[in-house]
Amino acid sequence: MGMSSETSYEPSRGRDPRKAIGSSPREGRKRKLAELSSDPALRAWYDNTSNGSRITADIYLRRLRAFCVQMEVDRSALPTRKYKETDLRDLLVRFVNLETKRGSSGEYIRSTVKAVRSWLAHHGRKVDLAVKIPGAGTAPSLEDEILPTPEQLGSVLLRATPNERLCCAFMAFAGLRPEALGDYEGTDGLVVSDVDGVRVEHGHLVVPDPPLRVRVRAPNSKAGHGYFTFLGEEGTRYLRESLEERLGRGEEIGPSTDIIHPYRARKRFVRSLNIGDQVRLALRRRGLAVRPYALRSYFASRMLEAQNAGKVARDYVEFWLGHRGDITQRHYTRGRARLPESMVSGMRDAYRRCEPFLSTVPTKAERAGANSEAFRVMLSAFYTDEEIGKVDLSDPAAVIEAIRKGAAKGAGAAGPRQQVIPESDLPRFLAEGWVARMPVNGSKFVVERPA
């Protein structure tokens, strides 16, 4: 099976074709542009695939290229009648067997076979004959991946730069994909108006009480539909700090301002690949050898724990992750929300209940609960449980007043049972519960504290 003079492929002859092609991202981009400009048929297939997903188009192009190098075939000849359907099937089977012996993952092999089938289908050729792929749909390197614990994630966030921290927060606490923060080409992404209520008024940043609703517009959604999720207290704090820092540097913050801003480049938005790089740097600095996507998996796994604890419905979590499900099908049309406000409010309350499972620091509700328990213990020295139940433990001023009165009551209880007091003090003692027993010399009284 020879190769035409139109292609520039060279057989790898024992080398891994994936390593032999495109030694750097810049060289890979140059090669891609050269290929597409010199081959109109390849360009038409690539553009058609890009209409569905630019990422898929780039992956398929690399897979097709590597396949043709390894199998020593001319891609332009593959769709022709030179190859019968059985020939194409046998070619794919040989590739599968070679890659399996090489130790490639089933997912990589399956992706390459899909790329070749896509190229053939674009030219009207289909291979309906079955091609079995061992371990298809599996990625062994990911099966052993251990997700960060909240303690480890907290350590990651402490060591991260502001931009790294914000990327990590949106993925771990809101479940966003990197593409939702900045698209594949770095031309769109999450903006200020996508976060409900965040704005600048008279030069001051206004951030509502969390959780904040975060919209993912359809162009930035992997599934192609708009949806929303929430960002809790900890993530909101990082968002506030980042935007306030940018305001302090003199940057104008408006509805269309990008949330994740490039450090050096004079442009808006960060490419999704670079967002992944920032998250990876933060994880490696902590010594965690996991993928950036592990933080989205962290969100999903912690929400599963919350679901098992009865804090949230499964459909809500699937919706926040951007998956297509019952809620999306019932209430979303053409990327526009049709959710009733009662459901949005219910989702917000559910997310708030889940925050302790996600956050690396105690939430406001947890801190209030701990304070209330501490106040209850303090008041137990002076009052019964029934009396404590009448004190608003969430109000520090009310607790302080109760402690003051209780201490005064306790101090009085430690004093003498009877006292001789001037007549002028009699009204105050009677008001405090003392009982007048007898007058002394007409100007003093003996008072007694009730048992």
Name the overall outline. elongated
Second rung of CATH, namely the architecture of the largest domain: Orthogonal Bundle
Q: In CATH's first tier, which class of the largest domain applies?
A: Mainly Alpha
- How much of the sequence lies in strands comes to 5-15%
Q: What would you report as the Rg, rounded to the nearest angstrom?
A: 34 Å
Number of domains: 4
So how many helices? 20
Distance between the termini: 109 Å
Please give the largest β-sheet: 3 strands, antiparallel
Regions with little confidence, pLDDT below 50 for 5+ residues:
1-15
Annotation, overall tally of beta strands: 9
What is the N-to-C order of secondary-structure elements (H for helix, E for strand)? Answer: HHHHHHHHHHEEEEHHHHHEEHHHHEHEE
Helix proportion: 40-55%
Order of adjacent strands in the largest pleated sheet: 7-9-8
- Class inferred from helices and paired strands: mainly alpha
What CATH calls the topology of the largest domain is hpI Integrase, Chain A
The CATH superfamily name of the largest domain is Intergrase catalytic core
Description:
With 451 residues, the protein is mainly alpha-helical. The protein folds into four domains: 17-143, no CATH class; 150-358, hpI Integrase, Chain A (Orthogonal Bundle); 365-413, no CATH class; 418-448, no CATH class. 52% of the residues lie in helices and 8% in strands. The chain has 20 helices and nine strands. It has helices at residues 17-20, 25-38, 40-50, 54-71, 85-102, 106-122, 140-143, 150-159, 162-174, 178-181, 233-248, 272-285, 294-308, 314-320, 326-331, 341-358, 364-379, 385-388, 396-413, 426-431, and strands at 199-201, 204-206, 212-216, 227-231, 332-333, 336-337, 418-422, 435-440, 444-448. A three-stranded antiparallel sheet has the order 7-9-8. Helix 9 packs antiparallel against helix 11.
